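Lecture 7 notes: from sequence to structure.

We start with a single chain of 121 residues. Read the sequence below before looking at the structure.
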Amino acid sequence: MPHLTIEISANLESRVASGDLLSVAHQALLLSGVFDGPDVKSRVVPRNQFRIGASGVSEGFVHASLELLAGRTEVVRQQLSQAVVAALMAGLPRGMGFPVQISCDVREMSRECYSKAIYIE
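Now the structure, written as tokens:
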């Protein structure tokens, strides 16, 4: 725990190295001091079909969903969300040519309903 999923709009894929965004956001979680390193799991998911607003102006987005086991304080959740957004902003190249909305949502998962296993053959 935690699970970080970063969604990126398809119009950014040719301009942004999604692996770089993944690295900076993952590193932000590791540096937060909240988690043990092996517990942090991150991934990037491109979104080919998307719409933003009603103006028809080309925009892009990077949205992170951070899932944590329940029990973290609201302050800690806010700090994690802000750290991820700051990392994603730092990971975007300059001169995109259109606005890019960057966001992060932190969600709590029930400890009682979360299951985990480690498979080792």
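The first helix runs from residue 18 to 31. Keep this in mind for problem set 3.
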